[in-house]
């Protein structure tokens, strides 16, 4: 399969400027990002193992959560290794093809995660508003279709955006004031339109789901029901608030020289920090997940001969 950018601008290389204006922070930044990336990889892969190993977690919510963990693992792995390379060995160049591939996969994963969170909001809506019909309404077939739809939409949008960037329009300076080829690093009207449409649609699904959830919670007569409903949605609400909050901040910042540092910091948040936080958010607030972790740790400890 031939990618549209393979025969264009083959000799072009970009220079990822990253945090080069702060040479005294290269080592501290490397240590901080390496630690966060390690926690992200261990946390997200660990969450997938935990969900697969405990039959009690074989529910629609955790099915979607396992895919969210997979997306977070892949997303943080698209940009972070190159960022660590820039900070460690000061190798800042990236080929045109490499830049376009990094952009394509990063954009695919970002849009897919955006809609995965929307699907999880719909799942919480069904769980709270129709608890007796939850297992019927959220059938394995429907869950698989919803997940397949998010991946398909993310890939299609990213392909369209990347094709709009494949024309040899990179004249002049080849320096990118970023540490990766994604989002604000490359400007395109097509990118802006599709990204905005995806953001608006996913937010509408989330808002509609939570409006119905809030109405249902208000009508609950018992305090126990209120606490259970809130506990059901708390982790997901925390995740979407952080994820969409950072994205909306980026939309509000003009792409100018004075805003480059803010854009870099915000990008660090959603490429490294958010993927690290998601497994912590879901594990610390869930007794089944914590119990599975304890069992896995005990099994590992007792499996070693004394």
Radius of gyration using CA atoms only = 21 Å
Number of helices: 9
Low-confidence runs:
none
Q: What is the CATH C-level name?
A: Mainly Alpha
Percent of residues in helices comes to over 70%
Query: How is the largest sheet built, in terms of strand order?
Result: 2-1-3
The name of the CATH architecture is Up-down Bundle
End-to-end Cα distance:
54 Å
Q: What do these coordinates show?
A:
Pfam families: 7tm_4. Keywords: Cell membrane, G-protein coupled receptor, Membrane, Olfaction, Receptor, Sensory transduction, Transducer, Transmembrane, Transmembrane helix. Its main location: membrane. Belongs to the G-protein coupled receptor 1 family. By secondary structure, this protein is mainly α. The chain has one domain: Rhodopsin 7-helix transmembrane proteins (Rhopdopsin 7-helix transmembrane proteins). It contains nine helices and three strands.
Brief descriptors of the model:
Olfactory receptor, 3-stranded mixed β-sheet, receptor, mainly alpha, 3 strands, about 300 residues, Rhopdopsin 7-helix transmembrane proteins
